[in-house]
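Q: Hand in one record:
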Amino acid sequence: MPYQDLREFLAFLETKGDLRRISAPVSPELEMTEIAYRLMRSDGPALLFENVIGPGGRSYGMPVAMNLFCAERRMNWALEVDNADDLAARLESMIDMALGGPPQGLMNKLRTLGRLAHIGAYQPRTVRNAPCQEVILTGEDVDLHSLPIIKCWPEDAGPYITLPLVITKDPETGTQNYGIYRMQVFDSRTTGMHWQTHKVGARHYRASADRLEVAVALGGDPASIWTGSAPLPPEVDEMTLAGFIRDAGVELTPAVSVDLMVPAHAEMVLEGYVTPGEERTEGPFGDHTGYYSLAEPYPVFHVETITRRQNPIYPTTFVGRPPTEDYWMGKVTERVFLPLIKLILPEVVDVNMPAEGIFHNLVLVSMKKEYPGHARKVMYGLWGLGLLSLTKVIVVVDDFVDVQNPSEVAWRVANNINPATDLVLVDGPIDDLDVASPTPRFGSKVGIDATRKGPQEGYHREWPPDIEMSAEIRERVSQRWAELGLNDIIPPANLR
């Protein structure tokens, strides 16, 4: 059964011995980040701070959950899979079913009908009397300073809400969008809304003639939290993807004061609006690039209503020099979206977005090369796909190269490229947080063709073969391993 809410996930982590409760008093200003950072670097457990203390020693009376997803095992548990490739395989099966033509034979037709009917189970379901609305605060009772919102890094402009599910509606189509955008707390009733230029929330903001209603969900089931980070096309509902992952529809409920649907099992929901043209300086903020993003104007979010559970848990995260928690969340995105990339670029075998590249700065891709210039076709294809358009560096290698092994990729690149002919320089959109471009949001990119080359690509020498031992000798040595007395050094099961 899928997790209904954040509490069920925390209870599961506790049964696995992968949650540590901290009862000692802890400050949300810098201290909690340092504790969580050390535990993350040591592959430690998720954290539940039970005694968060504010200015003057005042207790917030609200526990704070951190490091929920910052390990591969916890990310897999959150999505209830053995590994993220399982989700990719399920998605690939659905794509094949949708595009593979009509099924042949009565039994195959019945099976296909059953699968298609099951897709309806992924759609969100509307409920009333939602847990997220057990307490409703309006007017003078709305006070963001009553929440244990953390300040992550010393030069941050203030405390930030860092794990919000920000909900907006397209003014033209009425389609809701869910995204994770940081929110600097300005005062007791306003925050910044850091939706970057290329994000769907920013598109809704630009399309609004009048005020844009916004709801911000904090907490909920882990699949719904994760989908806020997924770079889906504007017309695709994140909650449907969450339903696909959970194999059950997400329960939504109408917000109290805005015309939006919100996750019924969130810990709390902030409801309010932004007004086009009303902006305020936001930042600096210690960002996932490993640098501080500088102060810039962003929209102001006005909080008019807060709904919450009777005894809510406040979920949060921090970002910084990679890898941090967003790395593990992003690796799921990489695996789940690989079948969609293959749908458009079928020559692609695998992709890897290393932590060091903070996802949009470096993409390693292996491909089945069939003709001259094929690697460039893949580069341009990736630069034309959604938020992959922001990628600064694309490295293309042959299909037999393991792109999940950066050492192997570096070896192939260092050996295989002729810089005068194998580098592709282009200009295009780049991420708002890019620190290297002399102009914001627009700059240069490079594609590196590290595939083997042939005469039609100007390479007129014989391409050398890889050095490999013969299969006969490998098998002979494996059979003699015990005789050689080496089992204590490398057990037979570990022989490669």
